[in-house]
């Protein structure tokens, strides 16, 4: 796995997020849309992919996922799929949508959670992985 420095990917990821944010809001105006994952954290080293969390009401998840397919996405195969979670991936670029039911355990994956994860797992510029243990505080 190749990791990129922030200057190699973050500007492009933020531009792609803004593009998809507008597209998603046009199709699903009531959805909660968040840029999540390492690319959402300023200065983070990442694979350079874009992860977007899309929160919808439970009874709207299936219809919302079908609507999002029109943006050039497909349901991700060989991954967890429940009534509260549908993973979609772009057919043309390294972008993933996590369509989740608001109020479910999956909706807890937010940018704040990503920041906590980055504090826990630090990746050096050489790609060496260091795990740092933190207490409850």
Care to describe what's here?
The protein is α+β, with helices and mostly antiparallel strands and 137 residues long. The protein has one domain: Beta Polymerase, domain 2 (2-Layer Sandwich). It has helices at 6-27, 61-68, 111-120, and strands spanning 32-36, 50-56, 73-75, 85-90, 95-101, 121-123, 129-131. The strands form two sheets. The chain has a five-stranded mixed beta sheet, with helices on one face. The chain has a two-stranded antiparallel ribbon with strand order 6-7. Strand 4 and strand 5 form a beta hairpin.
SS-based class: alpha+beta
How many domains, in number, for the residues?
A: 1
Average pLDDT number:
83
Q: Name the CATH class.
A: Alpha Beta
The helix count comes to 3
**In percent, how much strand structure appears in the residues?**
15-25%
The second-level CATH architecture is 2-Layer Sandwich
Ends apart, CA distance between termini: 32 Å
Number of strands: 7
CATH level-4 homologous superfamily? Beta Polymerase, domain 2
**What share of the residues lie within helices?**
25-40%
Largest sheet data: 5 strands, mixed
Radius of gyration (CA) equals 15 Å
CATH level 3 topology: Beta Polymerase, domain 2
Unreliable stretches: 119-137
Shape: globular
Q: Which series of helices and strands comes N to C?
A: HEEHEEEHEE
Strand order of the largest sheet: 1-2-5-4-3
């Amino acid at each position: 796995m190749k990791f990129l420095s922030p200057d190699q990917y973050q500007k492009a990821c933020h531009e792609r997020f803004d593009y998809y944010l507008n597209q998603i809001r046009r199709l699903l105006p009531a959805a909660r849309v968040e840029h999540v994952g390492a690319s959402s954290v300023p200065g983070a080293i990442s694979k350079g992919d874009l992860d977007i969390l899309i929160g919808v009401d439970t009874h709207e998840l299936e219809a919302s996922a079908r609507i999002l397919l029109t943006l050039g996405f497909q349901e991700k195969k060989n991954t967890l799929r429940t009534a509260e979670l549908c993973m979609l991936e772009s057919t043309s670029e390294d972008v993933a949508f996590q369509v989740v039911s608001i109020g479910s355990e999956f909706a807890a994956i937010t940018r704040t959670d990503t920041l906590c994860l980055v504090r826990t797992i630090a990746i050096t510029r050489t790609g060496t992985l260091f795990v740092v243990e933190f207490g409850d505080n």
